[in-house]
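S.,

Sequence below, as promised.
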Amino acid sequence: MEIAITRIDERLIHGQVAYSWTVEYQVDEIVVVDDEIVNDDMQKMLLEMAVPEGKTLKILSIEQAAVYLKGSGNKKVFLVVKTPQIILDLDNKGVNFDSINIGGMYYKEGKEQITKTVYIDNEEKQIFKELASNGISLDVRTSPRDKSFDLISKI
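The prediction came back faster than expected:
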């Protein structure tokens, strides 16, 4: 299994994710990791409707994803999650990440603006610092062709 790109985006699969990122990275499958959605048939159906033709979708819990992503296979995967905590959980379960993309963490009270589409709170800052200390590059971009910068330079 090759993780071609990992993205944090609270909206999970939407137009930009479904088309720009899957085309840029030529992925075969989109993998959504979310312990709540895995048990929500309505959310699963909505996500399935957003997947581009020719791509497959897996919606997995953190535990399922840790096993699936470490497995063998020749699929090129686009991993999408809502929060950095999920990435940290997967990292702690032995899933290897060289880099993650942060592109859709939206405004909520108590969050600091990093870009127009990335807001983080103190807990998320600590998680990102832990991910960086584990050797994971933190790429901030909204779309694949945007200029990238390392989140650590802003927190």
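The two ends are 32 Å apart (CA to CA).

Coffee later?
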